[in-house]
Amino acid sequence: MNAASRTKLNQTPEWTALAKHREELGAPQLRELFARQPERGTAYTLRVGDLHLDYSKHLVTDETLRLLRELAAATGVAELRDAMFRGEKINTTEDRAVLHTALRAPRDAVVEVDGENVVPAVHAVLDKMASFADQVRSGQWTGHTGKPVKNIVNIGIGGSDLGPAMAYEVLRSFTDRDLTLRFVSNVDGADLHEAVRDLDPAETLFVIASKTFTTIETITNATSARDWLLTELKAGQDAVAKHFVALSTNAEKVEEFGIDTANMFEFWDWVGGRYSYDSAIGLSLMVAIGPDRFREMLDGFHLVDEHFRTAPAEENAPLLLGLLGVWYGNFFDAQSHAVLPYSHYLSKFTAYLQQLDMESNGKSVDREGDRVDWQTGPVVWGTPGTNGQHAYYQLIHQGTKLIPADFIGFAAPVHDLLPGLIAQHDLLMANFFAQTQALAFGKTPEEVRAEGVPEELVPHKTFRGNHPTTTILADKLTPSVLGQLVALYEHKVFVQGAIWNIDSFDQWGVELGKVLAKKIEPLLTGDGGADAGQLDSSTAALVDAYRTLRGR
Ligand code: F6P
């Protein structure tokens, strides 16, 4: 659908029908919905690859789902999806194609950007990465002093950090345990300091990950890392080639930094930062898990890409998840969405999704530049269970807010050190199932009274229930399953952006702070002629206080 000719979302008949349906539903009760439809627990499920998805504990009926699918049809989700897969420039504000799906396309696929098939280049880079990863893993790649690499420090931020850092954590049990892999992102020097302080520079490789190779945090950290390495090794500039590689789209800047472009792994402007860890940005992950496991992960991504592209609307999992988010955000005023993995290996997964979702859909103008008057992306948050149960679950269960949540769990653990630890898995998963049950069905005052609870405590011990959750269950957290999960969320975010008619692929909102920081820095250091008089009184006073504390 041509965005310019499209009716405002909240003026479409499909939106109005949903609003009316929402009114008629009133306060839907999950107990009632299950009583009316006893087979709901098996009927409201989907299977995508290895993922079993249960959406029965949602405040929806068949009619809700039908109306939501009609909204998706009316807003052209499928057309935009097809345009994305075809390589059309759907990122209109940056005039770019959006083709992370090409990063996991099989070797013989054809995906064209400006008339050129990009798949051979994708596989050429993957092959180059694999050959490099094998050299490092086998000890063939040696540093300046001839020692093999034992430590890899990935320096990047945002999409050039969160993806590989998350995936490394997730796939730890598949990694070469003789290699140490660390991630440095923050311009706070403490990050780099703690990452390198106990490393032997002769055995350390820095992977500088930056799509643009201009990001101030990354270039600053990379420069400090280079200084540390050359000082510690008492070496000249020629040592850089053996200890630094770059992952970037910007060969000129890479060369300017002093990294041999033979040691640069390329990707392209049609890969968004937050959609990039399956590109060259995944190099340090590939070194850690090996090229075969990396390819298994890409196959997992591809499986869900194909599902999203071809599955009918009724069975399309990313479409369904996207629509459920629209239902709560736009028709229940839910402000946030929790992602609660019951796997410690997924401890960085929600932080990764924060960038994917919030940088993509945290927008308030539509694709034509007009202000939207409907809610867009939610606040995404969460940490692994069971830890969260002893922190903020109280608010989800008994607070005043509606917080839809995704629960992600696995039938079998991937760690296998002690039999006792494997037995613990049942306890973990018992909590996993118990939480969605408690959230959905709560505990009525009558049930509380029946337990002999004194009347004055009844309101305190009552659980309202009706907190909607999706449960995603898979056998094991393998590389392929990780790829499937990430692609599921990528496409969910896509669906929502398409419905809200926003450009999910730009991120202008990060610019202003960067520009202001550049202006403020000379005021802190006293370098340059920046004019403190141009600051507002609050910022000026704070800058002044900082300078006094620093003795300047
Ligand atoms: O936060 C803004 C952003 O541009 C992200 O989209 C991106 O992932 C990150 O900065 C890092 O950018 P680069 O890879 O170019 O260093």
Q: What is the CA-atom radius of gyration, in angstroms?
A: 25 Å
Main sheet? 6 strands, mixed
Strand content: 5-15%
Query: What structural class should be given to the helix and strand makeup?
Result: alpha/beta
State mean pLDDT (0 to 100 scale). 96
How many beta strands in the DSSP annotation?
Answer: 13
SS summary, helix count: 22
Q: What general outline do the C-alpha atoms trace?
A: globular
Give the names of the bound compounds. Answer: 6-O-phosphono-beta-D-fructofuranose
Q: Could you estimate the helical fraction of the residues in percent?
A: 40-55%
Stretches with pLDDT under 50, minimum 5 residues? none
Pathway: Carbohydrate degradation; glycolysis; D-glyceraldehyde 3-phosphate and glycerone phosphate from D-glucose: step 2/4; Carbohydrate biosynthesis; gluconeogenesis
Pfam family, one: PGI
EC number: 5.3.1.9
Family: Belongs to the GPI family.
